[in-house]
Amino acid sequence: MVDLKGQYLHIAGEVNEAIQSVIDNTAFINGPAVKEFAGALADYTGAGYVIPCGNGTDALQLAMMALNLQPGDEVIVPSFTYVATVEVIALLGLKPIFVDSDPETFNLDISAIRKLINKKTKAVVPVHLFGQCADMDSLLSLADEFGLHIIEDTAQALGAEYISSDGTRKKAGTIGTIGTTSFFPSKNLGCYGDGGAIFTNDESLATTLRAMANHGQFKKYHHDLIGVNSRLDTIQAAILNVKLKQLDTYAANRNKAAEMYDKALAGVEGIEIPHREEKSTHVFHQYTLKVKNNKRDELRGFLKERGIPSMIYYPVPLHLQKAYKAYGYKKGDYPVAERLSEEVLSLPMHTELEENQITYITEQIKSFFNA
Question: What is the pTM of this model?
Answer without folding.
Answer: 0.96
